[in-house]
Design a protein that fits this description.
alpha+beta; 2,3-Dihydroxybiphenyl 1,2-Dioxygenase, domain 1; Signal recognition particle alu RNA binding heterodimer, srp9/1; 8 helices
Length: about 300
Amino acid sequence: MNKIIPYLWFDKNAEEAVKLYTSVIGNSSIGEISHYGKEGFEFHKMPEGSVMTVSFTLNGQSFMALNGGPVFTFNPSISFHIKCETVEEVDRVWNILIDGGTALMELGSYPFSKRYGWLQDKYGVSWQIIHTETPFTQRITPVMMFIGKNAGRAEEAATLYTSLFHNSKINMISRYGKGMEPDTENSINYASITLDNEEFGVMDSAHEHHFAFNEAISFLINCKDQQEVDYFWEKLTENGGEESMCGWLKDKFGVSWQVVPEQLGALMNDPDPTKSSRVTQAMFSMKKIIIADLERAYTNG
């Protein structure tokens, strides 16, 4: 299991989207599917028995999709690079994902790649599909774009994130030069970072954009114990971060994270519906997840 899992918030079509994505990328599969119960209806408003979450892998990387209702809308502030070894593979992936979607940067040749395009698919998820001649081990890379009031803060974010996770580093930074207004000289055109052995990208853009980070895409952190939950919760909410419900928070840049103990899934999906219901109800009442309270609900009600 990956330490950090991209978590995609759909309206009601998570399962449909996951089937498409796993059909496009090789070595991909659909994992566990969970369903809504009666508990928490006052929060999620989703019918009992409907699909809640779908876990899946894309080229061996872990992802999660949620049917959460029409609360948040995907936008390009967080996108996903898909690296391709051939131009033909770029074209194949592009032609499938563009169906019903919108081109943000047309498929073509660019100074950084002889075949590249940026699109929003029909569900709103953004993909940057790129041919690369450099060997890679991770095919899909989440990329955070720092815009608006956050423009120019990508390096600050990269420094913070790499300081929080083990086995982390800034791999490379490409900076804007002179005459690239409105982006300021030395702000980040693109940087590759590693967080707990997983690759992420960050970039600045001072151009006018009518969107910002939101909960439509968050990053779930699998925590081994309460000490780790407390650590990430404290570090990511300090200096202007914001607590939310059920383990969700926003850091000082507005990026959404879910700080979740590894045992939560097992407790919520226990075969005994009474126990799983109690755990789920307890979780809906929390901001930061308290493992002892979940276990108490599981055992004693």
